[in-house]
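wait is this the right file?? whatever heres the structure
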């Protein structure tokens, strides 16, 4: 029996530092290694991806700055580029990460193409479409329409699947496919990195990595570490995917100037994950929290708020600690308990690595996407999505 032919896949994501872009980039790289032809379509090359391998292509979206528009428009140029790439490369799948603006642009792109030349549209939800825009009357109907018009929808956690049905009621099934992380080889030894950071051998290196958006609650992160009673026992390393300067005053006010180390837009995060001892995440909400998984892959447990999809990643007391209250004092006590008990920290870390390598392994998750793509291609969805979208819009308007 012959093996199925390689697929031609277009991927659109935010290329900035964030879980959605990192996941989309890693997925594209892995699919290309599996022999599929992968075309990234975005305004910049995705962060953390080196587009110099076989089967990987990048198509930049040029955003014009016309005086006609008060604000520069991205959705329309994106839709045109999606249509061009789909036509010129005979794409089988358009896989977009976020409904707004990517799925909405894809829907317009498909309308530009003959019916027999349209790729299947798969939309992956990462959180904000549901938890923020889905509740906004100015965006919610557009998000709902984009999901209903997609040939298939995925979400990165069961929490997000359930929340999307509750908030948006898109009237379509949502496939849960969790995130994965493929670490690159470590370039520098742990001891070298820690020495470069000024971390003493006796100090526990706490690690936080995120895009610093308000939902990440960097204020709570800093307040928590300021309450750790053994002040000389730790350092906090923040790998910042955004501007940290708004928090500099908090660092000084809390007396953390000698405890906090910040590195901006780090490409090779593996060296720092390997140098760290413990992750710390204090978000108000998370659909999955890829950063926790990145730490788990290196055998580093995390202390985190028990919100959103994080309990699907962290098993409290087995491969990390979940703090339900989100109070800085409670987070500080949990961190203290692991600073004081390296043996327990190692035990949790070993279990964290095992879960990362099994439940969230690259091989398992990428194979699920490949299988899902082929299932969608075999479906006859002509007309169904349009009818469903129209019915939902009329119902929401009434």
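ok assuming it is, sequence goes like this
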């Amino acid at each position: 029996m012959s093996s199925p032919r390689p697929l031609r896949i277009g991927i659109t994501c935010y290329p900035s530092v964030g879980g959605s872009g990192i996941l989309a980039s890693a997925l594209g790289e892995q699919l290309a290694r599996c022999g599929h032809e992968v075309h990234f379509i975005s305004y910049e090359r995705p962060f953390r991806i080196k587009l110099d391998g076989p089967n990987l292509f990048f198509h930049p979206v040029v955003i014009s700055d016309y005086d006609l528009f008060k604000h520069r428009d991205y959705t329309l140029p994106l839709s045109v580029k999606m249509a061009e790439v789909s036509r010129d490369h005979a794409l089988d799948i358009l896989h977009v990460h976020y409904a707004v603006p990517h799925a909405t642009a894809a829907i317009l792109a498909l309308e530009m193409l003959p019916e027999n030349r349209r790729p299947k549209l798969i939309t992956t939800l990462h959180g904000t479409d549901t938890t923020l825009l889905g509740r906004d009357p100015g965006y919610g109907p557009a998000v709902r329409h984009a999901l209903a018009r997609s040939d298939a929808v995925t979400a990165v956690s069961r929490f997000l699947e359930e929340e999307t049905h509750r908030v948006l009621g898109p009237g379509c099934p949502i496939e849960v496919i969790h995130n994965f992380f493929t670490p690159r080889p470590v370039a520098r030894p742990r001891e070298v990195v820690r020495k470069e950071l000024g971390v003493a051998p006796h100090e526990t290196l706490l690690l936080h990595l995120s895009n610093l958006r308000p939902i990440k609650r960097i204020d709570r992160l800093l307040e928590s570490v300021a309450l750790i009673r053994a002040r000389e026992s730790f350092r906090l390393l923040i790998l910042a995917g955004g501007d940290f300067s708004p928090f500099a005053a908090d660092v000084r006010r809390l007396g953390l100037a000698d405890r906090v180390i910040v590195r901006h837009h780090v490409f090779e995060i593996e060296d720092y994950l390997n140098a760290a001892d413990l992750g710390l995440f204090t978000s108000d909400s998370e659909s999955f929290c890829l950063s926790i998984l990145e730490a788990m892959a290196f055998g580093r447990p995390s202390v985190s708020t028990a919100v959103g999809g994080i309990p699907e990643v962290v098993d409290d007391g087995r491969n990390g600690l979940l703090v339900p209250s989100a109070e800085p004092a409670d987070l500080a006590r949990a961190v203290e308990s692991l600073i004081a008990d390296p043996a327990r920290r190692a035990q949790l870390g070993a279990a964290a690595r095992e879960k990362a390598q099994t439940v969230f392994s690259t091989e398992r998750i990428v194979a699920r996407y490949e299988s899902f793509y082929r299932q969608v291609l075999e479906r006859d969805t002509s007309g169904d999505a349009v009818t469903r979208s129209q019915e939902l819009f009329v119902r929401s308007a009434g």
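Residues 386-398 have pLDDT under 50 and may be disordered. so i think its the right one actually
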